Amino acid sequence: MKIAVVAANGRVAKEVIAEALSRGHEVAAFGRHAENDTPAKEYIQKDLFDLTREDLAGFDAVVDAAGAWSPETFPIIPNAAKHLAGILAGTLVRLVVVGGAGSLFVNPEHTLTVAETPDFPDAFKGVAAAHQQTLDFLRTAKDTQWTYISPAGDFQAEGERTGKYILAGEEFTLNSRNESIISYADYAIALVDEIEKGGHSQQRISVVRA
């Protein structure tokens, strides 16, 4: 398969690229920096917001790995999804979005999210809100073949690659050890599995370590 990874110099993006390459997929990395800090041999220096429909034509899937960690940059997260969904609208190219855990529901009625619970840390409320905006927008993007993948609550950059995960849905899910945890490496496995297998078009799914 031919996969484009956007905002490719980020840590999650690099794990996704490495995982896809290990399975023999053709990967093109798009980043705004001049240097290629990714495992991909094909690197295109271009700002995400300058990407066009033509740039992404011919790919089977586009991975939106845009991230932000300051109030000034939080809007990048929803704006990236809006831009990519717009240029992919009406095509068969899948848009797979690296999401957040704050938007997962904690009740069966789906009226309360993780980010709305009393113990949710103030330090993460801004980025959680940005990811929530992204998901809210995608639910309206009826002409784009999007999939939004929420990680577990404890999303570990340096966590081990176990190769095992639980594929869940809209609700905050714990494993058999009452943990909500996943490493970047295992998340990347789940994401590439989703690209290969499909089946969750215009849906949000979530993953947690098994």
Layout: helices, strands, pairs:
Blueprint: E1 2-6, H1 11-22, E2 26-31, E3 42-45, E4 61-64, H2 76-88, E5 94-98, H3 125-138, E6 145-150, E7 154-156, E8 165-168, E9 181-183, H4 184-197, E10 203-209
Parallel strand pairs: 1-2, 1-4, 2-3, 4-5, 5-6, 6-10, 7-9
Antiparallel strand pairs: 8-10
Helix pairs in contact: 1-4, 2-3
Q: What is the helix content? A: 25-40%
The dominant shape is: globular
Q: What separation lies between the terminal Cα atoms? A: 27 Å
Assign the structural class, choosing from mainly alpha, mainly beta, alpha/beta, alpha+beta, or little secondary structure: alpha/beta
Give the uncertain stretches in residue-range form.
Answer: none
Mean pLDDT: 97
Query: What's the arrangement of strands in the largest beta sheet?
Result: 3-2-1-4-5-6-10-8
Secondary structure tally, helices: 4
Strand portion? 15-25%
> Main sheet?
8 strands, mixed
In total, how many beta strands?
10
Integer-rounded radius of gyration = 16 Å
Order of helices and strands: EHEEEHEHEEEEHE
